[in-house]
Amino acid sequence: MIIGAGVVGLAVGRCFSEAGLSVLIVEKEERSGESTSSRNSGVIHAGMYYPDDTLKARLCVEGNALLYEYASKKRIDHKRIGKYIVACSKSDFEKLDFIYDQGIKNGVEILKVTKEEIESSESDLSVCAGLFSPNTGIIDVPELLTALEGDIQHNSGMISFRTKCEKVERKNDVFIIHCSSHENFIVESKFLINCSGLDSENISKKMSFLDKRHVHKINLAKGHYFKYSGKNPFKKLIYPIHNESSLGIHVGFDLSGQLRFGPDLSWVSEVDYSFDETLKSKFVKEIKSYWKNLDPNKLHPDYTGIRPKVQRKGEKMKDFIISDCNDHGIKGLINLQGIESPGVTSSLAIAEYVKELTLN
């Protein structure tokens, strides 16, 4: 049984169902991907940002290739569009070099590009230098979710929506999962995979047999996205360097070309998708550092998302947590926490990794 029908839970469900296992996914929302999966940038990341000894680096690079292959096979709308990582001042050059070196270590195709090369391609940009990632792209996440759901159902798997996990017990190496929906029911399963994202700490606490040392606090990081009603002048995604004086507000767009900016980051205490419109002036200032021709009157609130981080404010990036029997001592349990960016990109690789941990 799998708890959570976000993109990772669905990918794991697909992987297990294709291996011939009977799969049930329970999801408390009315449809798949309602939380983190559907409230992100829809970017297929290449994997140059993460330390080379992390799951994020390994699974992002592997997932990038798997996702392009799957999207092509399933005819999911996507585009290998490419991304410029740009330095807006010479003080950013050292960080640019660090990202380049990390990308090479991670096996990512990444190129150093000059100010002239960038601005000849993106004439509206005003930057000092940059990197180019040819394997960064964009994907229609709702189409991805639908394709994964279809594969699960084709393999006789089931997804139970509007269903909450209330309690998990364990007897004789079997998980007994108490669920509530329009009526209460119990599921017995040899395997239990917690893919509940924002709810992963809460679900972990419902497992009385799981030592508290293996329950990680989930910290909520909220991001805002603004859309732009004017013409999109950019051909590639644009990622400015994040530093003490810059939020690194990204230039993104969907497959129709709709231009948007974000996300920023603010730490919140509860899941709340309301939009703080007072952030507009901060966004305008950031965007104008590399796009002088921005018309602030065409910048409008779009949506927000919340990332389930295991690091706290002020801490360095922490890795995905995918714990198995070797970590917590409970056979058949795989507990996933802190699966934030690059979660969508990594989803198919995470699923293969979870299958290896469970079945081998």
Describe the protein.
The chain has 360 residues and is an alpha+beta fold. The protein has two domains: 2-72 and 141-217 and 315-359, FAD/NAD(P)-binding domain (3-Layer(bba) Sandwich); 83-134 and 220-309, D-Amino Acid Oxidase, Chain A, domain 2. It is built from nine helices and 21 strands. It has helices at 7-18, 55-74, 93-105, 115-121, 141-154, 200-205, 280-288, 325-328, 343-359; strands spanning 2-3, 24-26, 43-44, 78-79, 83-87, 111-114, 129-133, 137-139, 158-160, 164-171, 174-180, 184-189, 192-194, 219-228, 237-240, 251-253, 259-261, 266-268, 299-309, 321-323, 333-337. The strands form five sheets. Strands 9-2-1-13-21-20 form a six-stranded mixed β-sheet. Strands 14, 16, 17, 18 and 19 form a five-stranded antiparallel β-sheet that branches. The protein has a four-stranded mixed β-sheet with strand order 6-7-5-15. Helix 1 runs parallel beside helix 9 (343-359) and helix 2 (55-74) packs across helix 9.
